[in-house]
Specification:
heterotrimer; A alpha/beta (434); B mainly alpha (286); C mainly alpha (295); A: 434 residues; alpha/beta; D-Maltodextrin-Binding Protein, domain 2; B: flat; disordered C terminus
Chain lengths: 434, 286, 295
């Protein structure tokens, strides 16, 4: 055996032994009950805050012998990871769920209802949009510590200097024509008139960000039964609304692909169509002066998106009562909501929590709250949501690149309808309840 | 004549170098981007300037190490891949030898079946495969989670029809006279395999080890399925975390990519030299 | 003696066969059995037996036909291009000169990088000319005063852009396999040919080619299979778009399982794919036999 091979073998064995020794070092405390928690990978500050919340929980519950262990997964993998874990019975006890996934996951029985744990004070204190989001077929499955806000940020140095005054209230939201005019107006002064984040790797961004165009024009993504897509998603109203959106690309006011994930912070974009989660980082970007305005209307009513990550108990959770303590902690105004909302800039999920956040009396956060209270639409709660959102996102990506709107929407509708038609009428776990 | 031949061979060498550079452009681009300030990456995106940087920075590497926890994922991946490669050799080489040299009932049929498994994409069988592996999760009561994960990452991929095929080709190309001599000396199958056949296909063994390394170093879907905890993730999972998790900084993603590639490059450089050397020292010519 | 040989052979073969049986063939069998039931991704138990209903739904879905066609085009383009390129590079770099070694390393380099990284990277390189940033390739085209191309954003070019990237990425591995075969050829054979007055082409045609023919067949077979498995590149670079032009069969299976959460349908697609791949492999084998017989 050559010397090199011998060195390699010895080195390899050493690494294996070292790695095994590393593994052994983990302290195994047999008296502690471990509650496993899965969460999505947010921005860095959000993860740090989440870790601190869990540490504080562990500190406070040491006497009870409870310890929570949190693992983060990136957005794009999260749903796949949960599916695979559920197929193998290895779901965590407490599960973070993105709003629109409450429907499919409840329908498949991955979540257990939490009605029994939610006292009426808590229920009444939650934002109605969060109760709506967590309810499926009459049972409550999830509650969230915060809700989201989708707005258009604008760069004051570009927009106001060119004589435009974007509205600060929902009632004054621009019509689509006003919006296009404004973009044409700033086009000579900005590398990117409007940033739409078309490079987003997830499908969810597209449904979240652009469904309001459809709602504003009186349309829907899917019928009220949660199973009719053809004739609904590709309705004439929706086609008209999305055609207006396509104008953005055809008039070169927005780009169908982009390499720069954040042109607004770099001062290159005049307008940025994005969510509350960018607010803290924009506030900390030196030299960036910005404002927020509500989404422009494509039809007669103002519409905005809502829905965000929320907490539920999985079907593999053996001790729901102990696990509920973790969720209760995450929803506590001071222990849970305050740190996470400070980190991600979202809208607190409980009315009583607003006392801790005087900034929601002023712009820009006042608009976030106002939107949620008056014009928020949840994304549809349907068992076929994943297929619907992926078909819709695919259609929007194609339309941005110039595909025919009518054809793209019809194909998306047909593809989601095919999945809906194959949905076997499985009784949801909630249907057994009186 | 000698002179003109010298010039033309110089030209061919130059051409080879030019093609080498052209082929390496994307990788060079990645390396350059990992050293540039984020702003400069965007500014230079479409121009030859993207290959140079006037203010190199290590911030992306620091971000990759701090935020991405590269060191843990590298150790996990290395151990899992080495287990696949070495464990794989232990089961694949004897099988390949038997298919090449021994006669037994059903040999052709079994071999054909094995070779057909090369074509099965993991994506198709990943859920059934996981259901096969799942019952062993109860072992985590006695085994550490990391040990279980390493086993789950490696054991299903040790036996590999591709490698059996490759090694069998090599055994077939050995002159029979060598082994016949061993048999005449009274050696049995095992000793012949271990002392005569195996040392003579060393380049192929290195090739097989390297292939395992390359293929499984870049595994994505299976680790995604198997790794349940952050400290058991492999480097590709870490990378996927990194480039889908805002803020997306291309420089840091490229730095992570470079760090994830370096161990492969080291293995390759060592392995390539070894291939050449063993070819030269084997000196086995008909 | 014979008996003992059988037992020894069995011991040699058993570990590998057992592992493959458990971790490859058993899941394949499961794929077929699952494909005739109604079963959701997360259902603990199978739903009712449904015969060939999943297959009927599969063939009714135009997206499946589209993805099969895309995968076929991709394979038909990648296999000859990549094999030819790999052979050329293997012949060219089969030399100790340092410039050839550099070329060999450079061609092999992409195969050691993960497809995930490379897909992210090439998406940046392919970026069309735009307001906020132009990719390197279009930047170079513009610099040469050639028209810029939409690459991944055009339904007509996207698949070909992925073909080019894949050939670039995969050729190195095949080149190494060819190199290993070339280095097995004894130098004496070339000398003998040279003594017979054979030129370079003749040497290639009558010494090199016959010697590497089995390897070439192997390389073609493996490349075909790798090409049929196309998934990561479009999944990251185009998500199967634009207008479905880069949707692959494996992505279809993935989406049926994880988006539609329809394990029955996904397994039906997997079974069809498996049978198709087997048929292709068998056809290649038969073709080889015909070629061998003719020689």
């Amino acid at each position: 055996m050559p010397v090199r091979a011998r060195i390699f073998l010895v080195g390899f064995v050493a690494v294996v032994i070292w790695a095994t020794a590393q593994c052994r070092r983990a302290p195994e405390d047999t008296d502690t009950q471990v509650i496993t928690v899965w969460a999505h990978h947010g921005r860095e500050a959000e993860n740090l805050a989440m870790r601190r919340i869990i540490d504080a929980f562990n500190e406070a519950h040491r006497a009870l012998g409870l310890r929570a262990e949190i693992t983060f997964f990136p957005d794009r993998q999260y749903a796949d990871k949960v599916s695979i874990a559920s197929a193998s019975g290895s779901l965590p006890d407490v599960l973070e769920v993105d709003g629109p996934y409450v429907g499919p996951w409840a329908a498949e029985g991955l979540l257990q209802p939490i009605d029994d744990f939610v006292r009426s004070e808590l229920r009444d204190d939650m934002l109605p949009s969060l109760i709506q989001q967590g309810t499926f077929r009459g049972s409550l499955y999830t509650l969230g510590a915060f809700d989201s806000a989708l707005v258009v940020y604008y760069n004051r140095d570009i927009v106001e200097k060119n004589g435009l005054m974007p509205p600060g209230r929902l009632d004054d939201a621009w019509t689509w024509d006003q919006f296009l005019d404004a973009l044409e107006h700033v086009k000579p002064h900005a590398a990117v008139p409007l940033s739409l984040h078309m490079d987003d790797q997830s499908d969810e961004w597209f449904t979240y960000a652009f469904s309001p165009l459809i709602w504003s024009n009186g349309g829907r993504l899917i019928g009220a039964d949660g199973l009719t897509v053809v004739g609904v998603l590709d309705s004439p109203e929706n086609t008209a609304a999305i055609r207006r959106w396509q104008d953005l690309f055809q008039r070169k006011l927005a780009e169908p692909t982009s390499t720069n994930p954040n042109p607004f912070a770099a001062g290159l974009a005049a307008f940025d169509w994005t969510g509350h989660w960018m607010l803290p980082s924009f506030e900390h970007t030196e030299g960036l002066r910005f404002g927020v305005m509500p989404l422009p209307r494509t039809g007669s009513v103002a519409a905005c998106a809502s829905g965000s990550w929320c907490w539920g108990l999985s079907r593999d959770c053996d001790d729901p009562a102990a696990s509920w303590l973790v969720i209760e902690w995450l929803l506590d105004p001071e222990q849970g909501i305050q740190p996470i909302v400070r980190a991600n800039g979202a809208v607190p999920g409980r009315r009583s929590a607003f006392a801790l956040f005087p900034e929601y009396e002023h712009m820009p956060r006042r608009l976030f709250r106002e939107q949620l209270e008056s014009a928020a639409h949840p994304r549809p709660r349907t068992a076929i949501y994943l297929s619907l959102t992926s078909a819709f996102a695919r259609a929007l990506r194609d339309i941005a690149l110039g595909a025919d709107v009518q054809t793209a929407l019809r194909q998306a509708a047909e593809s989601a309808q095919r999945v809906a038609n194959r949905q076997h009428d499985k009784p949801g776990p909630s249907d057994n309840r009186p | 004549m000698n002179r003109s031949r010298g010039i033309s061979s110089e030209l061919v060498s130059l051409l080879a170098l030019a093609v080498a550079v052209a082929f390496a452009i994307p990788v060079l681009w990645m390396f350059a981007a990992s050293l540039k300030p984020e702003q400069a990456i965007h500014e230079d995106l479409g121009s030859p300037r993207s290959f140079v940087t006037f203010s190199p920075t290590s911030e992306h590497y620091i971000a990759a190490i701090r935020r991405g926890d590269v060191s843990t994922t590298l150790v996990n991946t290395f151990v899992a891949v080495a287990l696949i490669a070495l464990g794989g050799l232990c089961v694949n080489a004897p099988a390949a030898y038997a298919f090449a040299r021994m006669r037994f009932p059903g040999r052709e049929l079994i071999f054909l079946l094995l070779v057909m498994t090369i074509i099965i994409p993991l994506e198709v069988i990943v859920i059934p495969l996981f259901l096969t592996v799942r019952p062993t999760r109860s072992l985590t009561a006695v085994l550490d989670e990391r040990v279980w994960t390493l086993g789950a990452l490696s054991i299903p991929f040790m036996a590999k029809a591709f490698n059996i095929f490759l090694l069998r080709q090599q055994f077939l190309s050995l002159p029979r006279s060598l082994e016949e001599a061993a048999f005449l000396d009274g050696a049995g199958w095992w000793r012949t395999f271990w002392h005569v056949a195996l040392p003579n296909v060393r380049p192929a063994i290195v090739t097989v080890l390297l292939l395992d390394f390359v293929v499984h170093w870049n595994d994505f879907l299976w680790p995604l399925v198997v790794c349940q905890r952050a400290d058991t993730r492999t480097v590709q999972l870490g990378l996927a975390n990194f480039f889908t998790q805002p803020p997306i900084l291309w420089g840091a993603v490229m730095a992570y990519g470079v760090l994830a590639t370096i161990p492969m490059l080291v293995a390759l450089v060592l392995g390539q030299r070894w291939i050449v050397r063993s070819l030269l020292t084997t000196g086995l010519k008909q | 003696m014979n008996r003992r040989e059988h037992i020894t052979a069995f011991l040699f073969v058993a570990p590998a066969c057992a592992l493959i049986l458990l971790f490859v063939l058993w899941p394949v069998v499961n794929t077929f059995t699952t494909s005739v039931y109604q079963v959701g991704l997360t259902d603990p138990q199978y739903g009712p037996f449904c015969g060939l209903a999943n297959y009927r739904a599969l063939f009714d879905d135009p997206a499946f036909g589209r993805s099969a066609a895309n995968t076929a085009v991709f394979t038909l383009a990648v296999v000859p291009l990549q094999t030819a390129l790999a052979l050329v590079f293997a012949l060219w770099t089969n030399s100790p000169a340092w410039s050839r070694r550099a070329l060999r390393v450079s061609v092999f380099l992409p195969t050691v990088l993960s497809l995930t990284v490379l897909s992210v990277l090439w998406r940046l390189l392919y970026e069309p000319a735009s307001l906020s940033g132009t990719g390197l390739f279009n930047g170079l085209l513009a610099g040469l005063h050639l028209p810029t191309q939409p690459f991944l954003t055009s339904p007509r070019q996207a698949l070909w852009a992925i073909v080019i990237m894949s050939v670039w990425q995969g050729a190195g591995l095949q080149m190494m396999i060819f190199l290993a075969a070339l280095q097995q050829i004894p130098a004496e054979r070339y000398e003998a040919a040279r003594l017979d007055g054979a030129g370079r082409w003749h040497q290639f045609r009558h010494v090199t080619l016959p010697a590497i023919a089995p390897t070439a067949f192997f390389v073609v077979m493996v490349t075909t299979i790798f090409a049929l498995k196309l998934f990561v590149q479009p999944f990251i670079m185009t998500r199967g778009g634009p207008e479905g032009s880069t949707m692959s069969v494996v992505q279809y299976i993935y989406e049926a399982a994880f988006f539609a959460r329809d394990l029955g349908l996904a397994c039906a697609a997997g079974a069809v794919f498996f049978v198709a791949v087997c048929l292709i492999a068998v056809a290649q084998r038969l073709l080889l036999r015909v070629v061998e017989d003719r020689q």
